[in-house]
Amino acid sequence: MQHARVSWRIIAVACLFAAVCGCQPANQTPTAPEFVSPPFQPIPGDPPTVARQIVFDALGHPDPRIRSNAIEVIATTGEARMMPRAQRLLQDPAVPVRFLAALAVGDLQYNLAKDDVGALLNDQDQNVRLAGAYALMKLGQPAYFQVIRDAVAREDQTVRANAALLLGKSGQQEALRYLYWTLQRKDSADKVLLQAVESIAMLRDARIYPKLWTQLISAYADDRIVGIRGMGALGTEEARNAIVTLLDDAVLEVRLAAAAQLAKLGQTIGEREVQAVISKNLLANMDPTSAERVRVWTALAIGEIATPGLLRYLPDMLQDQSNTVRLAAAKGVLLVERRRPPASQ
User: Fold this and answer.
1) What is the DSSP string of 20-60?
2) What residues does 3 pair with on adjacent strands?
3) Does the structure show a pLDDT above 80 at 89?
4) What is the DSSP string of 268-279?
5) SS3 at position 157
6) Superfamily the domain 1-31+47-140 falls into
7) pTM of structure
8) Cβ(122)–Cβ(130) under 8 Å?
9) Which helix (H) or strand (E) covers residue 210, if one does?
10) Cα–Cα distance list, 98 to 101, 158, 176, 309 (Å)
11) Phi/psi of residue 18, each to 5°?
């Protein structure tokens, strides 16, 4: 039997969707309250139009996890046209939503929200204050790197892990010094160590490969998925070859994560794993929660692999009854559109 555990992730940003890996924001318990979704009505239009409407609607969803997912889609697909709506979520009552909204402002360099993210420096939550500093750094105020750097030494393990995440996202090689220091601290929790390893990989330091390999052979599926993402961030030939070995993993979600990550690195050899979910009806005997999680991973993988044989499934997934599946499909559609060369005049 495969081991499972609640993922250590603080915020949904680094784990695709919170529903995929069982991720929980730090200020929530594993028994977070249930939110009633508005009745879903099929959305007419071509796939990009439908995808954008799904994301736009999700920004106003009563469940903060769905709002968080929608922000992640906007940030990773470069949908700056939705940032005026996402900007309002900088004042959201949920900490993870404010955190991710600030990161989106920074990642998309959305200068129109500069004053709003500046206000987050006085937020009651230290994680949100860090996100505000990250956004300002990305908006051309490099002095805020010091705020993030110093936070990696805080006693609060959640703050320390989020600071490690933002050091990786900073793109600054100077951050390596502090990340390796964090790895050597005996008082760093597992969640901090795992994030520090991935952040070092994000900064393309190949010395971290052995620690990433340790994650790939972990007994925990969540850890293997984190390792896959780290190997993908590292992006070396050795890292790609390591990810290939996970295409034979016993856990379907791990195989789909490997297939998606390999596609990000330019290899579509995981297409057969995604196709098998549909053609072999691998969802037939799964409980509803597991089946939903696999559908999310399938949609995400299709968006990355983007072969004609797989893309034909995305329109139906845009009409799925699950909010997270629809958002994953929307992300796939928008990624494909973003990569498509502009039509000749």
Assistant:
1) HHT---TTS-TTPPP-PPPPP----S-HHHHHHHHHHHHTT
2) 220
3) yes
4) -TTHHHHHHHHH
5) helix
6) Leucine-rich Repeat Variant (1.25.10.10)
7) 0.89
8) no
9) helix 209-216
10) 5, 16, 27, 38
11) -60, -35
